[in-house]
């Protein structure tokens, strides 16, 4: 279980949350730009310390560097590496990611040569292959068309059904509709 009872922000408080999240839960974090969705995800992941309160995975504070929380945020790529090389570096089942995200024709392509949607699919293929009890993902639908957004939603639902707690920061009504619960920030 993930227990979040904290105020979050960088220098000033953006908001506070008191909530428990459970294995198998898929929850959308929504709210206007600047309300702290990404900051809350970074706080839950232990990358930022809460301004007050705590975030616990089981009995362990996430700020202690605990494993079990995976944060998928802004894509980071080495532009001269190929899609296949990125997938290999991710430590996942490369063939599964290629099949699942339809990357067959892109495996040998360098990242700089891809469209933004193709790069996002390659990134999601690499990142969603990582297994963790808690998955935090920041606007994964960016650059995806409707069909790939629907595929992403189904994949996140599958990951939750497999037992992970999945929190998704999003502005997409389509993604929100695919989540079992919604936490609205900044209201």
Automatic annotation (TrEMBL):
<dbReference type="InterPro" id="IPR003593">
    <property type="entry name" value="AAA+_ATPase"/>
</dbReference>
<dbReference type="GO" id="GO:0005524">
    <property type="term" value="F:ATP binding"/>
</dbReference>
<protein>
    <submittedName>
        <fullName>ABC transporter</fullName>
    </submittedName>
</protein>
<feature type="domain" description="ABC transporter">
    <location>
        <begin position="1"/>
        <end position="185"/>
    </location>
</feature>
<dbReference type="InterPro" id="IPR027417">
    <property type="entry name" value="P-loop_NTPase"/>
</dbReference>
<dbReference type="InterPro" id="IPR003439">
    <property type="entry name" value="ABC_transporter-like_ATP-bd"/>
</dbReference>
<keyword id="KW-0547">Nucleotide-binding</keyword>
<dbReference type="Pfam" id="PF00005">
    <property type="entry name" value="ABC_tran"/>
</dbReference>
<dbReference type="GO" id="GO:0016887">
    <property type="term" value="F:ATP hydrolysis activity"/>
</dbReference>
<keyword id="KW-0067">ATP-binding</keyword>
